[in-house]
Fold each of these.
Amino acid sequence: MLPASTPAPGRRLADGVLFALLVAIAFLLGCYELGDSDVWWHLRGGEWILENGRVPDLDPFTFGSADKKWVDIHWSYEVVLALVYRAGGAGALVVLGAAVGAAAFLACLTARRRQWPVAAAVLCWAPALALFAFRLDPRPEIFTLLYIGLYLGVLWRLQERPKLAWLLPAVQVLWVNMQGLFVFGPILLGLFVASEAARLSGARWRGTLKWDDGRRRWWLHVGGAACAVVVACLLNPYCFDGARFPLELLPKVAAAEDPYKRYIGELQSPQDFVEKGTVAAAGVNWFFLAFYFLLALVPLSFLFPALWRAWRASRPGDGAAAGAWLGGLGAAVGLLALGPLTILGRGAPDWVIAVGNNVPRLLLAAGAALAFRMWKGSPQAAIVAGVGALALAAWAAWLRVSLLGKGRGPFVGLDSPLFWGIVAAAAGLAAAGLVLRWGGNLFRILLTAVFAYFGLQALQNWSRFALVAGTVLAWNFGEWAAALAALRRPGSERAALTWGLRAGLAAALALWLAALASDRYYVHTGEVRHFAFREQPLEFAHDAVAFAGRPGMPDRALVYGLGAASVYTYHNAPRRKPFLDARLEMPDRATFETYVNVEAWLSEGKPLWEAKVAAMGDPLLLLEHQDHNVAEARLLTHPRWRCVYYDALASVFVRRDAAADFPTVDFAERHFGATTVPSVPAAPGAAAREGKALFYLAAALPRTPVVAWRWRIPILLAATDRARLAFDEEPERPESWVMLGNCCWFLDPHLLAPPPTPTDAWRLERNLYLAQATWCFRRALERHPDHAEAWRYLAQSYQLRGMVDSRVVAEERCARNDPMADEAERERASHQRDELANEAGAPAPPSAGELAGAVTRLLQRHRPEAAARLLDEAGRDGPAQWPWPFAEEAAGLYMHLGRPADARRVWRQATDCPSAAVLECRLAATFWVERDFDAATRHFRAARAADPRLAEACWGLAMLHAQLGEADPALEACRAGRELSLNERQRRDLEALERFVLSHQPGR
């Protein structure tokens, strides 16, 4: 888009800067922490090949497929991976993935005409690059991206230089020995040859075919290279078996009913991605939004230039309207962008959301209006506008109802994916015919259709679709922009505008680079990634796997999930073998179904899993905590299994009579004897991660009295120890406060008993746990007022106690801040809050004499928040001295609301307290809730000194010391308390606590 008068060196320098920035972005997009677990079994495969000097034949790594032939088509990649890892560890692998990804992008970027405007290439590649980063892990498929890029680069140049086709067999030989998707090579070349053959047939049918020596030589080179590419697929160590590998793998990754596709995340379709994660989660995921946008944008890149050519055919002298065409394109692109950007239905003005929800309608209306406007000047352009708008609108409607689910259709009553699929297919075929009629390229159309189909089948294809989509966009719009620019007269005003556009694009790309290098880019993408050249911390269970491979442990392992199984293979195979790992090509369907079924039966408590595991030879079970807390809970309480290892990431279980040299994990001993021992692995965040896992494990246990003291309470006490370490490491982390609040809540030994409410009298042994939990949730919200999880648990705790107005407010704040909540949920929560506010009204503040009655009535109506406001208003006039019964009610209310400081103020100011000991116990409770354990201990001891017969003080001291991991003081308080007059709950708690401490205290 630079004028002819611009010096060529300046133009080349400007182009070079923009291209360099794009390539640098492509490289940095791949520079994120290594988090893909498949790397580990690939590494082990590469090391095995280097150690043995040959490729494997039978599976050496798993006992579930030990007798099955292994067609290791990735062998050369695995050797490269092993050598790179030896040279530089995980950081070198990250660089490998980033470099190969950047090379793939560069191969496609250079497939262009020099006269095409560079600005068009930058704008076309920007959304494609955003999606391209979806999978740039150092996996074998990263080389598939490179080889696709090389193929596209060669195919682009074949018209002028057909001899380049002979490069493709060489590329194919490398490809077939590196990744199972080498079949894309013949597919790409086949699409190209088919499109050229169709063009040749069309010319012959029209009588314009000129079969000369040049064309004959072209077909000899291209046809010969195509045959060589097919032969090259056989040039692998497995010959025909290697060439057939994609056909054997296809059912596992493509069939919707296949257990592989249902189980493995990368094989799920975009529809599954939305269904499992909700529309709201998809609406904040940049990769999904970029995929959605590109699916709509690429068809536009065919239709808009065809429309322009059709118009130009009738109005050849109309070159002055280039600005109008560019403006129309910008409007169309903006309209298509609003579709994905308004999925959430919030964060934008209502009219913008309305436009986004009605993109298909607006496309139809715009197409009809444009066709009407063009009809007199160019009927053929009007037909292209009308048919193209119908096809694009139907496609946009199908995307909306297919990807986002029924009920999201743009037309009332028409939310069937089948209906819109049929309409889009019919209109799309008609539009494709018109595009070809007006200068479109059949190869580009076929290329887009094939890779869009693959992208809609599985998430793992998104990066490949992005590479193709960016290439086709740059081809279509670059070609059209060059033709459009050729019609415009050069001038100083245009030169300034063009240079301004280049400068703006360079600045935008530089900001993108800065965001990547400063680790600020992925914060907003919906993916947990960090710019770094290392292994992702707390991602791989190396320590648990190493423990499972120690001498004396079973030689076989059943490992969940598949990521941990790959790590097990890397560390222990072939000396010790898992049942299966993440290699899709190894287990047959029956073996994989056994693996999936055992996991399901174990989680569901069906005894079928025991027989299956016994038939495997009683392997050890290694389970990652994430998604397996229920299975861990069942194994933990199983009479024939025991836990011998537990860290922040995974646990190891063996049969009770196996691995005799390894003791059973005793969580109570960990609490009483090792409260400050760092978590494993020794990485930042490990304590918080382990504490969360322990809580979920405890929450999955049966809620019976026996289980409470045998398992749940010890596990939760260990979790609170991890929480203290997490606070030492990162005191402002809200997630740790949420986790601690849940632990306090579930520490109640009588979890199934009716919970206390603000209308009940304050009793320490009943009210303490929920008061602690509420205060922790509020602490999380002090640090992060919009923390949806804290609001959710706070709402649940309020609901449990019948605190209606507090619950409604918390639910509304949760819905407002939860990205997983949809708009209907937010509206419902907001409506409940408004209804409550209208019902409560704004009554006049009661007089001092009427305050107690007003507070009591509000509590009886389940309005603790309103009652607290009355108390707050009364307290603003100065210290209020209330009778002890009312002080108990008011302070208890504050404790229920997680406001122990206010409760302490009320108790201290109360008149006619029954005794100093009772007051000291109340004050101790407030400090205990605030986690000021020293102050709480002092006040409980002061209460005992004032009244040695007060049971509440002994109960409080016993439980407090137990929570702190202080066994001897806890035992002393238990024994002293049992000699007093206790209520039933206090007696049961102290007896159970004494037995618990005696049975688990180290040295006893």
Note: The longest helix spans residues 75-109.
Amino acid sequence: MTEYNLSLSNSLPASRRFLAVLLVLFVGSGCSALIYEIVWFQLLQLVIGSSAVSLGVLLGTFMGGMCLGSLAFPRIISPRRHPLRVYALMELGVGIIGIAVLYGMPYVDQLYATHVGHGLASIIMRGAVCAMCLLLPTLLMGATLPAIARWVEATPQGISWLGFFYGGNIAGATFGCLLAGFYLLRVHDMVIATYVAATLNFTVAVIGLLLASRTSYQAPQVSPTQQLAVRAPGAGMVYLVIGLSGLCALAAEVIWTRILSLLLGGTVYTFSIILAVFLVGLGIGSSIGSVISRQSPRPRAALGGCQLLLMGAIAWAAYMLAESLPYWPVNPTLSTSPWLNFQLDLMRCVWAVLPGAILWGASFPLAMASAASKGQDMGRLVGSVYAANTVGAIIGSLAFSMVLIPWLGTRVSQQLMIGLSAASALLILGSLVRAWWTGRFSGSKTSRWGIAGCSALAGLAIVPVLAALLIWSVPSVPWGLIAYGRYTATWADRLSPGITEEEDVPSGDSRPDIFCTYAREGINVSIAVTESTKGVRSFHGAGKVQASNDPQDMRLQRMLGHLAGLTCENPQSVLVVACGAGVTAGTFVLYPSIQRIVICDIEPLVPKYVAPKFSKENYGVVNDPRTEVICDDGRHFIRTTSEKFDIITSDPIDPWVKGCAALNTQEYYRMCKAHLKPGGIMTLWMPLYESNPETAKSFIATFFKVFPNGIIWSNDVDGEGYDAVLFGQAEPANPSSPGSGRINVDQLQRRLDSTGNGSVAQSLEDVGFHSAIDLLATYAGQASRLQEWMRNAQINTDRNLRLQYLAGMWLNCYLGREILNGIVQYYEFPDDLFFGSDESVRTLRELLNKTRQTK
């Protein structure tokens, strides 16, 4: 509170008995808001894509709507209306619109796919779609706190209660985050989650209307113009500081979430835990700030103290995330219970994130107290502070996620955050020094002001020095964390300390034996390329190896390409979703009939810098004149292109990574099938490691729903399931023609033996396939024979995204042998699939019977 002796409003004691009830209502409101946020983000990402640009537009629209709502409310809604009734009607509106968004999304999807363009036009269209769905409900959400603020006046007690309301709202948001992430969406789907959120809105609205009918409200006796003129001295500086605070808070959330998702595994549960801890910190801080604002005569000094302490909190988190937490002796595979690992994840998040979140939470009520003055319209005050904080948050989230992290990296970004917090502290301290100095020479100086002024003056000199020391101390994220994620501690003694050139990698058995030749934090994914002294080169993304020239990985990557390339009749165009090392895409370079290769990858750094490092293995595919590289989310590209292909291969990141389930839904497979030419083929990578039988069944059953004649080809390691290729074929142009949908063993061998495809034969020879029969002997099962095994499998759809919840729960399980044994127990030689000469079919049968019946 500014230096005014403000007395309690006469109307406040009469309504004080309802303030606790309002606090509970704000808890319910916050819970529903976070459920909506999670559901809407998932729904809209299915429409506009999951790239950084799409997420930036989505987040900007969501937060922008809340900002506009907080600003517009006190200027549009008359202060003479009962605040509780207005608040209740807003909650009612949010619930109605929430249900409308759920059922209106398919129509929005159709509209978007019909009119989407490219470049700037595409971004504008994405923004229009987000605004269409989110602007109205977020306007109402943003206006709820300013609405209820008119129920109190600009007194220390009133400001304190608003801080508690804000904290209660955050407490509800925390519960909503965990409820949605760990139960509603894991067990049910987005429909049920929306109904729960809407029920909360309707309940809050009914209670609010009942309270409004039982309480009187005395409108302010001054005009809005007079209220607007009542403004605390230096309030503009407070708005600037709370804006910088919001900027740093969201920037920190972006950076810390990015690093922690590497350390803990980027599952939906990891993101829920990180967000929950951040929200808990904001709630605790808001409560502390509310108490301070009630008791302290100098809230601006406390606000400045928060910014000063935030410099240390940011430096603390940077050190913990880079130098400490990655090397804690935690091996997630030691326990098969995901709940134990969740507890460890929660503890590590609290250790790094909580201090800064508490300080940012405390800043909001302190800023309200610092900007308040007697007789001020509390709706305008809260709306202005909230809007300033939200504008800063929008700038911070977009600037850091889309520009600063890809350009400068997380180390420089965190250094910049310390600098901005130092600037905020200097602004506050400067205002205190100015007030002390003015009071000193006007003769109104008191001893207390003298102490405060001298302290502030000393702080002005100390802050820059302290900030410089903290900025210098921020460490870089170790490349080992980017490469090995949650297993960094396990691999630590084998990793070189820095990044070296490929030609400088030593040979032999010296320690360390793994060297990083490239590491960078991209706009969507942090990536690394490593080289071992044994010559194994690996591409890392999301904290694990995604592709390598290791024999087993090469075998899988070649299978993805050649199974489709050899079985498809005269293929001419190919779409490869996810570039990786480029090995799968490179297999198609060897086929003379192929005229066009489209590579779609969400991270621009991968085809530009990673694939060239595997040019020997991928035959220089990115530089082939037939190749076009598209930087986009694979689902978004398929949804918005009119082009059809003979072959589509999809090799996305692991299914437990948040967002990847959208590339494995029934609807996605239907899109792919619709973009196949008659008789076209789709191949899909599926990991059997880091999984359990329920996850594998969901993955396979969903694919076979769309491709009912689908096939599984297994990439075994010594009889143990490692990974597999799912194979599906679109309906041929002439279904009645001989051999339609079947595989001619002799024809495949003739293609390998032909002069034009001699390089194809060599490509397969290099990974241990000496003939077409060897390649076909990786057969493990097909849809018609696995119906019993897939019974009760959970189908992954756009409405439930079930796969990411199943896979995320069991990513630390290694049950590949059990999964493969479950599949091959239904094995019998598929006479209805393979045909050819008696000798070829007999040889294939004997080889398969030998390998599959011994599992």
Note: The chain is about 60% helix and 10% strand.
